[in-house]
Specification:
globular; about 15% strand; alpha/beta; two-stranded antiparallel sheet
Length: about 350
């Protein structure tokens, strides 16, 4: 099998197996709606088999860095529609990543009287840089069960908005220490109710989100991103193989469009989980993590994954598929412009 072969992801057919993963670039406007620059940026990269948008917040209570987009109001939907129309005009396919930061929301970005939320009242260690300097993460307020029900509905509403905005499907952000990941890990989830304790309970929040979205889009238009090895903010799980193995099995039983796994190639062989999770899941798997073209060709040809996502390479190479196809040299990304705002380092990288 080749990286350039088409593949079906649930209800969506894609033209190749080269994926642009979600990457925040902070180019949204002050109301967190996509801008004309974002329309250009995504359209430039439409030759990817699948584009997964940067994480888009499902709730006003999830506020990441300035310039990050959301998908919970009509203005945001209308602006995203211009992005998807631009991608589709070039025969591209695009899913929207749905995200909630949970305990990683800074207190200063919430209105007075609000607090960050999480599965348990455990703060994420560390801080984020703000214009006022370093700000540590606050101790979140542990969600009550009725609030969890509301959150699940917010994901459902966000999926409905994504459909209205013209996306081909959605990806649930279950990685990188954000809210879904916070529920999954027994290091950040110390609940004693039906959302904590056993792996079945800790996975309940994610699976309820998937089931709720399926009432809007169908399972075949839902992807899930997981990062079993992520340890940022000291988030941890005592048995990642068991936790993520259970999740993969449940997602496979639902026959979602794909499972998106972050597993760096630098990880020791005896620590890797992707191959076993792929067998457990039984459907298409995207892998992401330091892949070169040769690495990607090998893992797809050997059946270790079905698609491969390339992060920084897509920042600097809007025509990455064409460059890979002709074995052309790649542009080098400029990290100083990753979150700088404006066109420089965003839509001005040269094509072949």
């Amino acid at each position: 099998m080749s990286l350039f072969s088409p593949i079906r992801l649930g209800a969506v057919e894609v033209s190749n197996r080269i994926v642009m993963p979600p990457m925040g670039r902070t180019r949204a406007d002050k109301d967190r709606a996509p801008t004309a620059l974002m329309e250009t940026y995504y359209a430039q990269r439409a030759s990817a088999g699948l584009i997964i948008s940067e994480g888009s917040q499902v709730s006003p209570l999830s506020i990441s860095r300035p310039g990050s987009p959301a998908i919970h109001n009509d203005a945001q939907v209308a602006a995203w529609r211009r992005v998807t129309d631009a991608v589709h005009s070039r025969n591209g396919r695009i899913f929207q990543q749905l995200s909630h930061h949970g305990r990683r929301v800074l207190q200063s970005r919430l209105t007075e009287g609000q607090r960050p939320i999480g599965p348990s009242a455990i703060a994420a260690p560390g801080f984020l840089e703000t214009k006022a300097g370093k700000e540590a993460f606050a101790v979140p307020r542990a969600l009550e069960i009725p609030e969890i029900v509301v959150l699940v509905d917010e994901y459902g509403a966000a999926a409905r908005n994504a459909e209205a905005a013209g996306f081909d499907g959605v990806e649930i952000h279950g990685a990188s220490g954000l809210l879904v990941d916070q529920f999954l890990r027994d290091g950040s989830n110390k609940r004693t109710d039906r959302y904590g304790g056993s792996v079945e309970n800790r996975a309940r929040f994610l699976l309820e989100i998937v089931d709720r979205i399926a009432t809007v889009l169908e399972f075949g238009r839902i992807g899930v991103r997981l990062a079993p090895h992520f340890q940022g903010d000291l988030i941890a799980d005592s048995d990642p193989a068991a936790t993520f193995g259970y999740v993969a099995a449940e997602l496979g039983r639902r026959r979602i469009a794909y499972l998106h796994l972050v597993e760096p190639l630098s990880l020791a062989e005896d620590k890797r989980l992707a191959a076993e999770l792929r067998r457990t899941f039984g459907g298409p798997v995207i892998v992401c993590g330091e892949f070169t073209l040769a690495d990607a060709q090998r893992i797809v040809a050997e059946g270790g994954a079905d698609l491969v996502a390339f992060g920084r390479a897509y920042i600097a190479n809007p025509d990455l598929v064409e460059r890979f196809r002709s074995d052309a040299p790649l542009n080098v990304p400029d990290p100083s412009t990753f979150y700088s705002g404006g066109a420089e380092g965003y839509v001005d990288y040269p094509t072949l």
